[in-house]
Amino acid sequence: MSDDALVIEGLAAGYGELTVLRDVSLTLRPGELTLVGGPNGAGKSTLLRALLGAIPASAGSALLGGEDLLALDMRARLARGLSIVPEGRGLFPSLTVRDNLRVALRAGRAGRRDAQERVDAVVAALPIVGERMDDRVGSLSGGQQQMVAVGRALLMRPRVLLLDEPSIGLAPIVWRHVLKLCRELADEGRIVLLVEQRVLEALDTSDRCAVLQQGRIVHSAAVGDRRAVEQLLESYFASGSAAA
Ligand SMILES: Nc1ncnc2c1ncn2[C@@H]1O[C@H](COP(=O)(O)OP(=O)(O)OP(=O)(O)O)[C@@H](O)[C@H]1O
User: Which parts of the sequence belong to the ABC transporter domain (predicted)?
Assistant: First the structure.
């Protein structure tokens, strides 16, 4: 197994007395796009929050290059290369695209020259971000806002990119565009973890897929293993998860 993988074992996490995730184990590899599907309330966002350090884990480990992320605070995890595109995007709608990126760069403590290089790289990857740089985020379409949210995450040059239901509010054609972008980001050697309810459209773009139900991984399969994927989809639909 690659030393650069993110190896999650026996992860448990929740909110106060409420345990949401139980015994979650997943291996996320560089160059791979891993899709975790599951119904509303299954714990998908909770998984990302626990990996990022926004909530504490009560058990388990998450080794990145052999180092346990769960022992680090959120700032240290960000410094190790974790970055998130949060559910709802988390942008400031009344600020311009440029100012949204500036806020992120300041939070990431990028120096001025370094900051410009990072912005240039984002614009090269996502030309729409450059085209709308001086527009207020609130005036952009949902798809364009999603590109800004992805661009903001890319500013941190992530080694591990976490995306929380980026399909929400997107037309199918825009969603497919976001998926293609996720594929490219994985192909560049990143670890990409996408949590989604709309798993069917995302499946063929992914390398691995897992189903989360009531805080547990109930199935996982390499997407190339069609038989395993069929079983996984059967369990997914039997659980009453959203279809598309
Ligand atoms: N801040 C919180 N405080 C307490 N409970 C929470 C909090 N956030 C989520 N939960 C609970 O944790 C469980 C899992 O929620 P989570 O948001 O992780 O699910 P999800 O799979 O991402 O669902 P969705 O698709 O609806 O976002 C739910 O029962 C939810 O009510």
Answer: 6-239
